[in-house]
């Protein structure tokens, strides 16, 4: 099996311009395929001679202000890779938008298993892989939050002061820009978030989209991380923002998006308990962070749906994302009342 595919129509790269840019930097026969997963930034496999790289760029067409900043992501990885071994090494940055229409960068390619909807063939005979993968996911997050941001150059990638307020108001602004109809549950969630802000806590790195399909596991050991991907929104601030969003993706059988398809995965309580054990953090206000996570996730999907709604993308995968937005908004309200 392969994790790449031919490039989707409408998402082709200007291969000749790319070849010209790479000349003298990475020489060799150039071949391009696409990683078809994901709904946001576009990722491609570049084979240059005997070497392989991952190219990341913003999606085609207009995008939300300050979103999909590949230059910033490259700079973050430059600082992060030496101190967090699961962050891929950034290799080459192109800030010249005349090459592909937008800035882009190349990073090392790591090989492993990304878990999505089905049991991968590598783990078919590993009966306890769900639990081992659960442990690897939580432990990777705990290790990220243990990185010394002040003993490195990482403290300056964000502003911890007022972090939660900026999170709430920033995502509220994005929601208002992208919505095409009123969703009452989103307004209920926003009122709750504004009225129940937790007290500030010591800042750590915050990935801001830490979830199962943004990590890569060893093909030989589902309990070992190979990489953590998608560092676009990484900043410094309250670490429980990551925990809350991760829990929004960690769906149980009776929740809107169903289970993982088999037993053995951590329950939500087990997820929280292992995280608290590994970090020593107080997680008593975790429900607030789950509501924030659900609100953010709904906004991200709404932004993608908005691009489809106004004709900026024709990708049919996005046509019904508005339904998911409403379901996630309902999930946020449910966590308010849990």
TrEMBL record:
InterPro entries: ACAD10-like (IPR052898), ACAD10_11_N (IPR041726), Aminoglycoside_PTrfase (IPR002575), Kinase-like_dom_sf (IPR011009). Keywords: Kinase, Transferase. GO terms for molecular function: kinase activity. Residues 32-263 form the Aminoglycoside phosphotransferase domain. PANTHER family: HAD FAMILY PHOSPHATASE, HYDROLASE, PUTATIVE (AFU_ORTHOLOGUE AFUA_1G12880)-RELATED. This is Aminoglycoside phosphotransferase (APT) family kinase protein. It comes from Deinococcus yavapaiensis KR-236.
């Amino acid at each position: 099996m392969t994790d790449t595919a031919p490039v989707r129509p409408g998402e082709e790269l200007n291969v000749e311009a790319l070849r010209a840019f790479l000349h003298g930097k990475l020489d060799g026969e150039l071949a391009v395929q696409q990683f078809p997963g994901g709904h946001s930034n576009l990722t491609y496999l570049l084979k240059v001679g005997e070497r392989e790289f991952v190219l990341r760029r913003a999606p085609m067409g207009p995008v939300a202000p300050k979103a999909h900043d590949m230059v910033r992501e490259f700079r973050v990885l430059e600082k992060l890779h030496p101190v967090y071994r699961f962050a891929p090494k950034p290799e080459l940055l192109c800030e010249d938008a005349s090459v592909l229409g937008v800035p882009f960068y190349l990073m090392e390619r790591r090989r492993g298993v990304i878990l999505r909807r089905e049991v991968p063939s590598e783990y078919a005979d590993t009966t306890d892989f769900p639990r081992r993968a659960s442990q690897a996911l939580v432990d990777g997050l705990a290790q990220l939050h243990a990185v010394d941001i002040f003993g490195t150059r990482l403290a300056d990638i964000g502003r911890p002061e007022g972090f939660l307020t900026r999170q709430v108001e920033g995502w509220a602004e994005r929601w208002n820009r992208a919505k095409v109809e009123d969703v009452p549950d989103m307004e209920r969630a926003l009122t709750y978030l504004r009225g129940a802000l937790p007290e500030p806590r010591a800042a750590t790195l915050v990935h801001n989209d830490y979830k199962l399909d943004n990590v890569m596991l060893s093909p030989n050991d589902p309990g070992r991380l190979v990489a953590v991907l998608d560092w676009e929104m990484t900043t410094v601030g309250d670490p429980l923002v990551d925990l809350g969003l991760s829990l929004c993706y960690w769906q149980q059988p009776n929740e809107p998006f169903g289970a993982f398809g088999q037993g053995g995965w951590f329950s939500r309580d087990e997820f929280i308990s292992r995280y608290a054990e590994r970090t020593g953090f107080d997680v008593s206000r975790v429900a607030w962070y789950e509501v924030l996570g659900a609100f953010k996730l709904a906004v991200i999907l709404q932004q993608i749906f908005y691009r489809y709604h106004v004709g900026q993308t024709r990708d049919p995968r996005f046509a019904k994302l508005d339904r998911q937005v409403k379901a996630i908004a309902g999930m946020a309200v449910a966590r308010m009342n849990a």
